[in-house]
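Task 17 of the worksheet. Students: predict the tertiary structure of the chain below and write it out as C-alpha cells. Keep your answer in the requested format; marks are given for formatting as well as content.
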Amino acid sequence: MRCVKTIIPLLTFLLLVSLASPLFADDKAKDEATLKNASAVLQTMLNDKSIPADILSKADCIMILPGVKKFAVGIGGSGGRGPMSCRAGASFNGKWSAPAMFSIGGASAGLQLGGSSTDFVLLFMSPAAVNKVLAGKTKIGSDMTAAAGPSGATSSNMGGADVLTYGRAKGMFAGISLSGASLEPDNDANKRLYGKAISVNEIVAQNAVQPTAGGQALVTELNQIKKAK
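Model answer:
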C-alpha cells in the first residue's frame, strides 16, 4: 500500500513534466525572436539616451539580454539569454559581427530593480574582458571588473571598468552593476541559428558566419554607430 502511494505521485509528476516539456523547448524561431527583441531593446535605450551613443562608440563588444526573468539583483534570479556582437579587427575598429548567443545567471549584489522581466545591456570596454568571455563561462566582478554604465546624451565618466552595465525594468532605466552574475555561451542556440556546431569565438571574432534574418537588424543598427577614435 505504501509503495502504491509512493508510485502514484511519482507517475503524476512524470506525466506533468512530459506534458509541460514542449512549452520550454527551444527552437530556432525563438532564437530569432530573441535577436529581434535585443535589437528593439537597444534601439529604445539609444533613442531615450539611456545608453549614450558616444559610450557605445568606444565599446569593443556588446551583449543584450532582453526580458531576463525574475533576475532580482541583490537577491538572485533565474537568468536569461541574448546575443553578443563584436567589432571586427584586432583593434575592434571594423563592422559589427554576427551575433552569438549567451546566457546569464547567478546572484548579484547591487541595486534592486524589481519586476519579473528586466532588459540588460553590457558594453565590453577592454580586449581582455572580451577574451575572457569568449573563452567560456565567466563571472562578472571576479573575472572582469564591472560598473553601472553612465547615461545621458553624452558621458565621459566610464570609471575604467572592463564592462559597463545597463538595466531597464517596467520602463524604468537604471545604470546597474551585475557583479556576481555569470555569462556562458549558449552553444545549443548558436548551433540552431547557424546550422552547425560553432564556437562563439568563430562567430564574433573570426566572422565565420553571416547574420541570420533575426540578427541582421541588430547588426545594421550597430553599424550606424562609428567606432570612436
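Marker's comment: The longest strand covers residues 61-69. The helical segments are 2-24, 28-47, 53-56, 127-135, 187-194, 200-204, 213-223.
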